[in-house]
Design goal:
- It is a single chain.
- The chain is α/β, with parallel strands linked by helices.
- The chain is built from 14 helices and 20 strands.
- The chain has a nine-stranded mixed sheet with strand order 1-20-19-18-17-14-9-12-13, with helices on both faces.
- Helix 4 crosses helix 6, helix 5 packs across helix 8 and helix 10 crosses helix 14.
- The chain is globular.
């Protein structure tokens, strides 16, 4: 039977109704998008208290946020020292979200500085924290930023990873603030345990989880390859959600347009054979395996040593099958392992997903459409179905962050049932 989305996680909108959100805004160009986030959080029924850094006020004004939230926006801890406002605000809030979180603000949060109102509130706050980094690509990829994010995730801070796209400098790459739906979903997911929507704690805390992501590339010659449209967004969202739930995450990444979260161990691969080797080398030590990568089923039997040229005529390309990583995992799996596969289908979608579930000995298949307007490739959201031996749970068009959260809810339930 087909079941609607729901279950323990609920929707972000249901979780956020009546919630008290502390919204930290730091001084990147994406600060203007924080105004949109404040408005959207208010639309879901949340109360929003903005906290702007001095740098953020170079980009946006406190008056803008006061108008959008209906709340006074304090400038500093010195506005009313007798009120000890940073402590009062920390006690008022149920979740703290910093969006955008610049490299500078991430560093201050990681070190534990208390040099303005936002960082004072952060140190006094003992609830769930969400950060949404936004910065130029080189800053996002710098080892110091990665180390600061790793420190934060080890403390339980949730990270909504940045998207890839145009940046203010005219460059294109990872570092732009995540899309609005992903931000709202991240805040809702952080709030869920606090709002008794999910049980306290996490069934993935300390678990070893491997996720594959991106699309493999099979070389034709030193220049060209056979590939696919996968962006890696779904796998990156799963990795980020798993890190936020306390899992020890290994991300085996083929070609992607987004990066896995800093708290994950990253293994880079290119071809289906390399992905097979990397996954199988780590599989025995994992508790959960989520195969979200779009892996080529075929590769050229012979790879040209030199570049193929038009004046040499049209080459005849003979294909051969690539190794089937998912099938091999199904054959080798331990009884206590949870194994999740993905199916990108055209035609009879559900029949294809059920065949994969049975043939490859999976616990769960995430089914995506890949044709027409429903295609999940490269998109920030998708239609999805979670298919197991007994049920089909439909997830109508929603963010990939929300799909990741619901998928890991199901993984946690499977682990709990086996214990």
């Amino acid at each position: 039977m087909v079941q609607p989305a729901g279950g323990p996680g609920g929707s972000p909108q249901a979780v956020l109704a009546g919630a008290r959100v502390l919204l930290g805004v730091s001084g990147g160009i994406a600060a203007y998008k924080a105004a949109e986030l404040a408005r959207e959080l208010r639309r879901t029924g949340a109360e929003v208290q903005p906290l702007l850094t001095a740098a953020a006020e170079q980009m946006v004004s406190r008056a803008t946020f006061a108008a959008l939230t209906g709340r006074r926006v304090p400038a500093s801890v010195w506005d009313d020292p007798a009120a000890v406002e940073h402590v009062a605000l920390a006690r008022w809030g149920q979740v703290l979200v910093v969006a955008p979180a610049t490299a500078h603000t991430l560093a201050r949060l990681a070190v534990g500085l208390a040099d303005d109102l936002l960082t004072n509130v952060a140190l006094a706050f003992d609830g769930p924290v969400v950060v949404a980094p936004a910065m130029h690509t080189e800053m996002w990829e710098h080892p110091a930023t990665r180390a600061n994010l790793a420190t934060l995730t080890e403390r339980g801070v949730r990270v909504v990873p940045p998207a890839s796209g145009p940046l203010t400098s005219g460059d294109v790459g990872p570092g732009r603030l995540a899309e609005l739906d992903d931000l709202v979903a991240g805040v809702g997911a952080a709030l869920a345990p606090d709002r008794s929507v999910d049980p306290p704690g996490s069934g993935l805390a300390g678990a070893r989880l491997l996720v594959s992501l991106g699309g493999t590339r099979e070389p034709l010659d030193p220049v060209r390859y056979l590939g696919n449209r996968s962006s890696g967004r779904m796998g990156a969202a799963i990795a980020a959600e798993a890190v936020a739930r306390g899992a020890q995450v290994t991300a085996v990444a083929a070609a992607t347009t987004v990066d896995p979260p800093a708290g994950a161990r990253l293994v880079r691969v290119e071809t289906a054979q390399q992905l097979y080797d990397a996954v199988l080398a780590a599989a025995d030590d994992q508790d959960v395996l989520v195969m979200a990568a779009a892996v080529a089923d075929f590769r050229p039997k012979r790879v040209a040593q030199g570049k193929l040229r038009k004046d040499q005529g049209v080459p005849e390309v003979v294909l051969e099958p690539t190794p089937d990583t998912l099938a091999e995992l199904g054959r080798r799996r331990r009884p206590d392992q949870v194994l999740v596969g993905f199916a990108a289908e055209t035609g009879d979608h559900l029949a294809g997903a059920r065949r994969k579930l049975e043939a490859k000995h999976l616990d769960l298949v995430v089914l995506n459409h890949v044709e027409g307007a429903h295609s999940a490739f490269g998109a920030d959201d998708a239609d999805a179905y979670l298919v197991d031996a007994d049920t089909v749970e439909e997830l109508p068009r929603t963010s990939k962050a929300a799909i990741a959260a619901r998928l890991l809810d199901r993984v946690e339930a499977l682990r709990a049932a086996r214990r």
